[in-house]
Amino acid sequence: MFNRRPKIILSIMLLIISVLISKISLGFSNNIYIIVEPKYEGELVWMGSNIGIYRSNSNKFGVFDIKSSKILIPAKYEEINCLFSDNLIEVKYRDKYGFLDKKTGEEIVVPKYDYIRYSDYFENLVPVIVTNRCGLISKITGKEVLPIKYDFDSFLSAFSDYSGGYLVEIKLNGKVGLVNRNGIEIVKPIYDEIRGIGEGNIATVTMNGLFGFVNVKNGKTLIKPQYNYAGVFREGLAPVVDGISWFFIDKSGKVAIKLPYDRTLMGFVDSFHEGLAAFGIGWNNPKWGFFDRKGKIVIKPRYEDVEPFIGGLAPVKINGKWGFIDKTGKEVFKPQYDEVKLFFDDLLRINNMLVMVKAKGKWGIIDKKTKKEIIKPMYNEIKYFSNNVIMVEITQQGKIKYGFVDINTGKEIISPKYDFVDYYSKGNKFVKVRIGSKWGLVDRQTGRELLTPRYDYIGEVSEGLIPVSVDKKWGFIDINGNELVKLKYDFVKGYKEGLAAVKINGKWGFVDKMGNETIKPLYNNAESFKKGLSLVSTDDGYYFIDKTGKEVDKLNIDFSYILNPIEYSTEWDYVVYKDGKFGFLKIQIN
Question: Is the Cβ–Cβ distance between 575 and 44 less than 8 Å?
C-alpha cells in the first residue's frame, strides 16, 4: 500500500507537466483557443468544411486538409475557382482545366479540358471543350454527361420549352439538335435548322431545304419535312407553304384552313395570336393585314408592318409611325410612335397589358386594358423596378437624372432627381440613391424615399442596422432612417452577435444597437464578436474579451503575428500570418 503512493504522485506530476507542455506549445493558457503555428507558405485563399486552398509565394495554388493541417496537393495550379459549384473546385494546370472534390480535395477530374464554357441554360451541367469539340459534364460529380463530340458552337443558344425551362441547341458536323437542361439528347442533331418551338412543344425544323415538325418532348417526328415553308404552331395550327399554296395545318398534318392567296402574291403568313393571323401582300414593301380562323380577311392589308395581337390590341405601322388597332381594325391609338416594344419585368416575363412606346426620342407606356397612355413619352429610358414601380431617366441640364413612377397611375412618386441608383443591388428591401456626393435610400417596393440623401457613405445592412458616415464620422441608422448610433466615430464595423466595433480617437470599443458603449474604446484594434468573444489588441499584446469587456485570455504570441478573422469556416476562426507563412486559430468554448 505504501509502495503505491510514490507511483500515484509521480503519475499525477507527469500528467500536470504534459498538460503544461501542451498548453505552452499550442500557445494558450486557459483552454480558450488552439493555434496552429504558421507553416504554410503563402496566403489562405478559401476554406471549406474539410479542405482549404492556399496561394504560394510563387502564385500557385495548393490544397490542404483543415483538421490534420496536412498538404493534400502541393501548390501547382495556375488558376482556381472555388465558386464553380457546391461540389467541385475548378483548377487549371498546364493550360488544361480539371476539378477537385470540394469535400476531400481529391483531383477527381485530371486537368484535360481546353476550355470551360459557362452557361445560364444549365443548372447542374457545364459545357467543356477539347480540341474544338464540346460536351457536357456534371457540376456535381465532374463526370461527362454528353461525350466531347459536338461542334464548337454548340450550347450557345436555347429555346423556351413552354414549361419554364430551356432546350439547348447542339450541333454535330453542322447538323442541329436539342438537349434538355439535364443533358439528355431530345432531338438528334440531324436537322439543318431549328426555326422555333411552338405550343405543345412542337419544333419547326428544316432538312434538305424542306420544313417539318418534331415533338421536342420525345424527339419523334410529328410531320416529316415536306413543306417549302412552315411557321410555328400556335392555337392548334401552323402556317405552311406547299409548292406555292398557303394554308394552315393542324397537328396531324391535315389542312385546316385554305388561304385565298398563293405565295406569288402573299409573301408571308404569321401564326395565330388571339384568333387572328397577320399576313403580308407582296414581296417588296408588303402591305399587312389579318386573317381570322376561317381564312377570312378581317383587317385589310394596308399597313407597312404589324405585330401580333396581345391583350386585344396589335401594333400597326403606317406612314412610318406606329399605332394600335383592336380586332375589328378600329384605331385605338393613332399612328404616332417611332417605336414600340414589350414591357418585361426583372424575370423577363411579358406584361401583356403594358407596352412601351417611343415618340421624339422619349419613352412612355400605354395600358391596353384602359386604352390609355398612362405614361406620356417623356423619359430617356424606362426600367422595371418592382411590381408597381418603374424607374425612369431624363436629361436635365445635360445631366442624367433618375426617378420613380407608379405604374398603375402613371404619376411620379419621386420626380427624377438622383444622379445614381444602385439598380442592380439584390437582397435588400431598399436601394441606395445618390444626389451629388450624398447618399440616401429608396424603398424597393413602393419607390418612396426612406432616407433623403445626406450621407457621404451608406454601408451594408448588418443585423438590421446600416453604417453611415458624414464628414468622416460614422454611426448607424435603421432602415427607416432613425439614427440609433450617433455619427461620432472614426470608423465602424458591422454588427455581430448584437455588438458593433467602433473606433474613436485611435481606440476601438463596442456599442449595442441603442448606441450604448458597452465596452469603452480602449483597444488598438478589435475584431467583431465570434462565439461570444472578440480578439482585441493593446500595447501589451493580443487578448480575447467577452461582451462585458472582461479579459478572458491573453495570447502567447507577439506582434510579429497578424490575425485575420475567417468568416466562412466552421473549423477555424482566424488565419494567422507570420514571415510569409500562415496557420490558424480556433476559439474553444467548453
Answer: yes
- Amino acid identity of residue 512, one-letter, is D
Chain Cα centroid distance, residue 564: 29
Give the whole-angstrom CA distance, residue 219 versus residue 167.
12
**CB burial string 251-279: b at 16+ within 10 A, e below:** beeeeebebebebeebebbbbbbbebbbb
Kindly state the DSSP code that residue 483 receives in the 8-state scheme: E
Cell of 130: 477539347
Half-sphere exposure of 449 (CA within 13 A, CB side): 18
- In sequence order, the β-bridge partners of residue 434 are 420, 439
Count of Cβ atoms closer than 10 Å to residue 59 Cβ: 9
Per-position DSSP letters for 484-511, written without gaps between them: EEEEEESEE---BTTBEEEEETTEEEEE
Q: Which backbone phi and psi does 198 adopt, to 5 degrees?
A: -100, -170
pLDDT of residue 348: 57
Residue reference for cell 415536306 = 226
Please state, in angstroms and rounded to a whole number, the distance separating the CA atoms of residues 20 and 265: 100
Query: 32: closest CA among 445, 425, 561, 556?
Result: 556
State the Cα–Cα distance between residues 431 and 440, nearest whole angstrom.
Answer: 8
Sheet architecture: strand order including 255-262: 229-230, 238-242, 245-249, 255-262
Residue with cell 398603375: 408
Given a contact cutoff of 8 angstroms between Cβ atoms, the answer to whether 314 and 322 are in contact is no
User: How crowded is residue 36: how many other Cβ atoms within 10 Å of its Cβ?
Assistant: 17
pLDDT computed for residue 347 by the predictor:
56
Q: What whole-number distance in Å separates Cα of residue 400 and Cα of residue 393?
A: 7
pLDDT of residue 252: 95
Distance of CA 425 to the CA centre of its chain: 10
Task: Specify whether the CB–CB gap between 498 and 514 falls below 8 A.
Answer: no
The full length of the chain comes to 590
Q: What is the largest CA-CA distance in the chain?
A: 122
Cα–Cα dist 537/459, whole Å? 25
How far apart CA 468 and CA 277 sit, in angstroms, is: 58
Residues 556 and 525: their CA atoms lie apart, in Å, by 17
482's CB contacts (< 8 A; 6+ apart) are: none
- At residue 19, what is the residue type? V
Phi, psi of 84 (to 5 degrees): -55, -50
Q: What pLDDT score does 263 carry? A: 85
Give the residue among 146, 166, 145, 169 at the shortest CA–CA distance from 156: 169
Q: How far apart are CA 279 and CA 271, in angstroms?
A: 9
Predicted local confidence at residue 479, as pLDDT: 83
N- to C-terminal Cα separation, the chain: 38
Distance of alpha carbon 440 from alpha carbon 456, whole angstroms: 9
Other CB atoms within a 10 A radius of the CB of residue 35 amount to: 21
Task: Pick out the chain residues at pLDDT < 70.
Answer: 1-31, 162-164, 346-349, 426-427, 590
Whether 204 contacts 230, CB under 8 Å:
yes
Helix H or strand E segment including 288: strand 287-291
Choose among 265, 260, 262: nearest CA to 241. 262
Tell me what pLDDT residue 505 has.
Answer: 97
